Amino acid sequence: MVKQNMHKQQLIKQLIKVVPSINFVEGDSFCWSPENKTIIYSDKLLTSPSGQWALLHEVAHATLKHKNYSSDLGLLKLEVEAWDKAKVIASKFNIVIDEDHIQDCLDTYRDWLHRRSTCPTCQIICIQTNSTTYNCHNCGTSWIVSASRFCRPYRLTIKNSKEKRLQTKAATFS
Question: Which of 72, 98, 147, 167 has the smallest CB count inside 10 Å?
Fold first, then answer.
């Protein structure tokens, strides 16, 4: 246990040398805060390879200067970039990040994106029009999704323009 503890502290110290402008703060999970230039990490989870990989992933976000994203697909792009950079950083410490682990992590974003982009009316995959709205090119439904990536992907239907056009045409002919 002492050896693992020393190893994780050694990794943190080495990472501070790589990114001296970034603060490292213990927390319950791993995340990058661009506003505070802080990487929050779980000391408890750093004893496992996946914990070290998560830390390297957050360091990658920091070195790439990732701040925010304007679309769900943009978030997925940032995550792919961060994992690619994490592999490069890891190699400097003789750490190999398991590719299956990376794909499993990316799958959580892909699944989240799929659920959010699926039309609640006709189940077609659709296009995001702004940070919280999707529109269906098939049936005309529009829906709002949460701006948070951490909550369940609820879809609140706000309109179905094709249905409204048909109702308007029917009212005109009656």
Answer: 147
